[in-house]
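call fold target=SPFH/Band 7/PHB domain protein
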Amino acid sequence: MYLLVLFVLIVAFAVAVLAKTIRIVPQARAGIVERFGKYKASLPAGLNVVVPFVDKVRYMIDLREQVVSFPPQPVITEDNLVVSIDTVIYFQVTDPVAATYEIANYIQAVEQLTMTTLRNIVGGMDLEQALTSRDEINNRLRGVLDEATGKWGIRVNRVELKGIDPPPSIKDSMEKQMRADRDKRAAILTAEGQRQSAILTAEGGKQAAILNAEGDRESLILRAQADREARILKAQGEGQAIQTVFQAIHDGRPDQSLLAYQYLQMMPKIAEGSANKVWIVPSEIGKALEGLGSTMNTLSGIPDKVDGPRTRVDMGPAEPDVPMDSALETTHAEVAAAIAAAEASSNLRTPSPSPSSEAAPDPEEPTVQ
């Protein structure tokens, strides 16, 4: 029985010694071994053997990159404004022995160093510069931290400012300033838009007025040319009509009998009109005609009798001579062709009257001998 108890104790002691001898270090870790309270060695990752009851793994250092976020810290700017700045530090332990024995708590040391360095950097800037110079603050802060933590076996890889929060009153003032600036830019853009619109409208009105003036000028010129040609044609027509009447008068060689006949033809027209209700033919109409004839005998230039027609007066060309340009001649030719085509179409559609339907001469029409 005593032998069994002794064997169990020996086995337990052997297991304890084995447990104290074999040390397993995880990947990306480093073990600090002390012998009788003094640094002995650093254990790499994997299976390691130490002297039991003599060597002791005092610290297990993480060699991976670590991220530490520090709470917001009040910082006074150069223009005496208090802002809250919170930071994020990315660092890595490169020397586990220095990180163990050179500093008691390197995370707390990095935090305090970050706070003091940040106050020194931001204290030399005003609020506007601090809000717009984050990259500069990050680079300067990283340089100071990397230099200060080098002897601790720590390398600072990155420093980021999570936020810079000014006081609420400053935020309100900044919002008002930003709103005023945006309103100013909006007013400037609106004014520029209205100016461009007014310029384009004026240019459009100017071009429209020029085109309207040119159109009115061409219209007036064409209308004046048309009026001139119409007056020329009317004058030539009136001249030809006067010449025709004058020639007819000379061809007819009127005498007193013709004048009396014209007087008889005018008498029915005297009775025309809504105001002439009753018209009485005087019995002395014959004497009146004789008196009219005797009166006509005294008119100069109207003989009592004529011997025959005189020589005809040359009335010139039947068509008026109007100066026309090529465009007007083309237009007149097209109008004449259209009139001729219309007349031809009308003649084709209208049947020719029969000989029996011709109008008989009016037996009451007077005949001049």
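return ok
Residues 295-299, 352-369 have pLDDT under 50 and may be disordered. The chain has four domains: 2-62, 65-166, 169-252, 253-270+283-306.
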